[in-house]
Amino acid sequence: MGIAESLKHNGVEVIVTDNAEKEIQKFGNAHVSIALSADENTGIVFFGGFEEKKNAGLADHHVVILKTDDVKSDIISAYRHALNKSGMLFASSSASKTADIEGKLVFGMHGPRKLTVIIEVKE
């Protein structure tokens, strides 16, 4: 399974493009992040920095730019790749969601209600 399929399996909106900047303009006030790396199999995306974690966690809509060079074949490789770029990492694989005792699903309780990943491919 590729990264786009893994992310979609997690309920993430995925856009594949060769021009991420053009796509970002469609999202207005959404918080935009650059991913440090991602695991192709699980769809886990790594980010770096305390401020980034705070801003991404408080955003209603988190839009992520992920370059294909930063997609790794396993979680350990993705983690190490991200760690080479930042000493403070956090990860995300979908929008924030939780369920109450009756099973009612609520989005945005502990982070963004929506996660969009723009995969930027090289031509």
TrEMBL record:
Domain of life: Archaea
All copies of domain LUD, residue ranges: 76-119
Protein's name according to its UniProt entry: LUD domain-containing protein
